[in-house]
């Protein structure tokens, strides 16, 4: 899909025109304007000891090597955003592989590590995931929409609906939003609405209103214990800077703490967590649970513990370190029958529960044969509020309640980068 066609399909004529005018203001004929913006972006994040992830087309890396090297040296993660900014979904499988191989080669030629990928326009398909599996990177092309925007008028609703359909965005499930494995690729969902939807499509310029939406997404993530990948494109940084600052202030004050980190760090943690070995061994009147092979691991239990343990939420306590002893006649694990769909088993394990074939010894046994949103909501409530002792691996390192990544696609640095996208159409 050409960029011009993308503008018309995903935005409509009016928004496409507004977008073109905004690009003319936000970029310039040289790197100077964007370099100033990126420096301000990094400085704001540095106030909170935060490092961003900037998915960047490989051709932009090639055209602006010194600027990209500066960002990398400042701790920013540079993820692959295609070789050129093109709709990967419209390419054949072989074209997808060729684009990805070329992007990897350009990154490595400029000394950049290759850890992650986000598809331009957030458009992907199963064959793209197959190509990403071959280069062993995480993916952040899966969009999830949060119902966090106040009531919209008809025109605004149509604008939002248009882009959500274009992105193929999923709605938030009743479970916390975690990284997910699909076709052998670890996927870190990016959350919407982002700056593009709020500023370009709804026309918002009020920092308090933007901060209100993102703050709602943060506090919901904190309550549930999941992952929030919050996107702010560099070209809209000054419009949204105050909103981002307010969100980071809130994130730094929440307790238990929020782990604010790069997407590569989240991917590395999640992969290590999935490979950890959990041992449940009987002891005198109870069970000794140990997590092996996971640095900075901690546990959550829903049993009353001696004084000094931090309450993680209304039902769970945090146990620093990788082991705990619980006293109960039943194993503090979840048993599943053969009826439970694999998606349900994977969701339980992602939440940190120890899942075993049902034997009748477990503290809780599940036998639900479906995994619809209604069933997911019922199962989440049931396991989260269960009264018999259960143990979970905490979702994030060092007892953090949730994880937050600040990211923004660095699609273009100059007018010429932007115009090259039009030329490809």
Descriptive report:
This protein is an alpha/beta fold. It folds into 2 domains: 3-254 and 403-423, Glycoside hydrolase/deacetylase (TIM Barrel, Alpha-Beta Barrel); 276-400, no CATH class. Helices cover 42% and strands 20% of the residues. The protein contains 15 helices and 22 strands. The strands form 8 sheets. The chain has a 4-stranded antiparallel sheet, with no helix packed on it. A 3-stranded parallel sheet has the order 6-5-9, with no helix packed on it. It has a 3-stranded parallel sheet with strand order 10-22-11, covered by helices on one side. Helix 1 (3-10) crosses helix 2 (12-26), helix 3 (32-46) runs parallel beside helix 11 and helix 6 (93-109) packs parallel to helix 7. The protein is globular. It starts with a helix and ends with a helix. The model has no long low-confidence stretch (mean pLDDT 91).
């Amino acid at each position: 899909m050409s960029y011009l066609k993308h503008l018309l399909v995903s935005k409509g004529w009016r928004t496409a025109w507004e977008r073109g005018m905004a690009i003319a203001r936000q970029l310039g004929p040289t790197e100077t304007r964007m370099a100033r913006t990126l420096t301000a972006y990094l400085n704001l994040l540095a106030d909170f000891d935060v490092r961003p992830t900037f998915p960047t087309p490989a051709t932009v890396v090639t055209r602006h090597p010194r600027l990209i090297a500066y960002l990398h040296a400042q701790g920013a993660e540079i993820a692959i955003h295609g070789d050129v900014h093109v709709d990967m979904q419209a390419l054949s499988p072989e074209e997808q592989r060729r684009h990805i191989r070329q992007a990897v080669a350009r990154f490595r030629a400029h000394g950049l590590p290759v850890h992650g990928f986000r598809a331009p326009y957030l458009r992907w398909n199963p064959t793209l995931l197959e190509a990403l599996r071959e280069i062993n990177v995480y993916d952040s092309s899966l969009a999830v929409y949060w119902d966090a925007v106040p009531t919209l008028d008809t025109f605004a609703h149509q604008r939002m609906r248009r882009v959500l359909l274009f992105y193929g965005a999923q709605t938030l499930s009743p479970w916390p939003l975690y990284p997910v494995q699909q076709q052998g690729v670890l996927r870190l969902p990016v959350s919407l609405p982002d700056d593009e939807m709020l500023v370009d499509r709804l026309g918002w310029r009020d920092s308090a209103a933007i901060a209100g939406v993102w703050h709602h997404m943060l506090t919901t993530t904190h309550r549930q214990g999941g992952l929030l990948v919050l996107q702010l494109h560099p070209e809209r940084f000054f419009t949204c800077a105050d909103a981002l600052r307010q969100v980071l202030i809130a994130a730094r004050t929440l307790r238990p703490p929020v782990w604010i980190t790069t997407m590569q760090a989240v991917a590395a943690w999640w992969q290590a967590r999935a490979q950890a070995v959990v041992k449940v061994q009987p002891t005198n009147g109870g069970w000794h649970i140990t997590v092996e092979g996971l640095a900075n691991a901690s546990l959550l239990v829903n049993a009353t513990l001696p004084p000094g343990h931090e309450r993680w939420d209304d039902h769970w306590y945090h146990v620093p370190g990788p082991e705990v002893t619980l006293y109960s006649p039943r194993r503090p694990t979840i048993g599943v029958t053969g009826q439970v769909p694999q998606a349900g088993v994977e969701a339980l394990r992602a939440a940190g529960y120890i899942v075993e074939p049902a034997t009748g010894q477990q503290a809780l046994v599940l036998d639900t044969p479906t995994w619809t949103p209604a069933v997911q909501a019922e199962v989440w409530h049931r396991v989260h509020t269960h009264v018999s002792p259960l143990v979970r691996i905490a979702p994030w390192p060092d007892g953090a309640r949730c994880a937050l990544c600040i990211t923004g696609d660095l699609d273009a640095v100059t007018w010429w980068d932007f115009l090259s996208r039009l030329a490809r159409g």
